[in-house]
Amino acid sequence: MTADWQEARALAYTAGREAAGPTEVVSLPDADGRTLAEPLRALTDLPAFPTSSIDGWAVRGPQPWQPVGRVLAGGVAAPLERDGTCVEIATGAMVPAGAEMLVRVEESTRDAAGLVSGQPRPRPVPEWRLPGEEAHKDEELMPAGTAVDPAVIGVAATCGYEVLSVRSQPRAGLLVFGDELLTAGPPGAGRVRDSLGPQVPGWLRRSGAVVAPESVSGPVQDTLAAHLTALRGALETNDLVCTTGGTMHGPVDHLHPALAELGAEYLVNTVAVRPGFPMLLARVPGKDGRPRFLAGLPGNPQSAIIALITLVAPLLAGLQGRPAPALAQVEAATDVPGRGDFTHLVLARLDQGARSATPVGHSGSAMLRGLSNAQGFLVIRPGMRATAGDLVPFLHLPLIAGERP
Hints:
Elements: E1 3-4, H1 5-18, E2 23-27, E3 40-41, E4 51-52, E5 56-60, E6 66-71, E7 85-89, E8 101-104, E9 108-110, E10 116-118, E11 128-129, E12 140-142, H2 150-159, E13 163-167, E14 172-177, E15 181-182, E16 192-193, H3 196-206, E17 216-220, H4 224-237, E18 240-244, H5 255-261, E19 265-269, E20 271-274, E21 280-284, E22 292-297, H6 301-319, E23 328-332, E24 343-350, E25 356-359, H7 369-372, E26 376-380, E27 391-396
Parallel strand pairs: 1-20, 6-7, 14-17, 14-18, 15-16, 18-22, 20-24, 23-25
Antiparallel strand pairs: 2-13, 3-12, 4-11, 5-7, 5-8, 9-10, 19-21, 21-22, 23-27, 24-25, 24-26, 26-27
Helix pairs in contact: 1-6, 3-6, 4-5
GO molecular function, one term: metal ion binding
Cofactor: Mg(2+)
Protein name: Molybdopterin molybdenumtransferase
């Protein structure tokens, strides 16, 4: 039965969440691109102590002030116990107890006797950071499911973490089907150049999967026996196997018979979306008791990428315990037609503020030129069309894992 596009995305995500892999502990540098398995909480107040924002003097009482010491970043300041005293202080250093004000070095003078005076300009905030100003001890800073990027690693390091608990990364492979495909040189003489073998692994990595070079294979010979051999091998070493082409029921389309032979269960078998027909997602029992997944992508290149962002990106998000890929809202810069009872995905580029999107053209299911100029797709729901200025859902193409749109 043909699934609604939104329903298909939800089914793929739920299947991934139900099969999410175990957690593991990794060092901070190794956490980049991974997914938090537990909330990231502050281990102490941030800052943990009053911290100077300037180079200058920590003073107590009326001026002039008698210097009684110095405190540098990393040192512990002795308290200022008497009025009329001060300590020299560096940016990042602990503010001593008893200090009433910080005076910038450029707004101070010293007389012949060494006494310090100052004429600080009024400022709306103090010249030091207070404990807990950024976060309080045990405060949740990032929820479980957050994609880890260098900024998250920096926050964790600031808190005092040395390792993070993260989800295991799903392993993905790709099998390219089609005797008509060339792997080198220009197309001609009835044969076309394979464009999916080189690009699909990059989209999978941007969705958080690990793709080993040996997990990309093809073209696989157009026989049922060759398909079964390739699929069994790929499913042994990968959590997800993507295939390209063979999703119909033509004379050399062997994917459906192969899935029957493997005892696969269809989660989605065709989706009411254009371009993108036909696509499928199946669950295959693994020898170790854990399910494997197979995503059948159409052979036409743009349709294949639409199948990938429809079924594979939500599945991989679920497998990593991340939130499902969300739709943004943008203005349609031009009128955009619908496709009757189908969801219409329209390649579009965003303006600089990402407030509106313009269709890029060259959007035939076999074309890739439009894809190379787009940041994602305008989503026109069944029975709908968009008029210039309408707010329309927008689905971003997968970004580098952890990258913010």
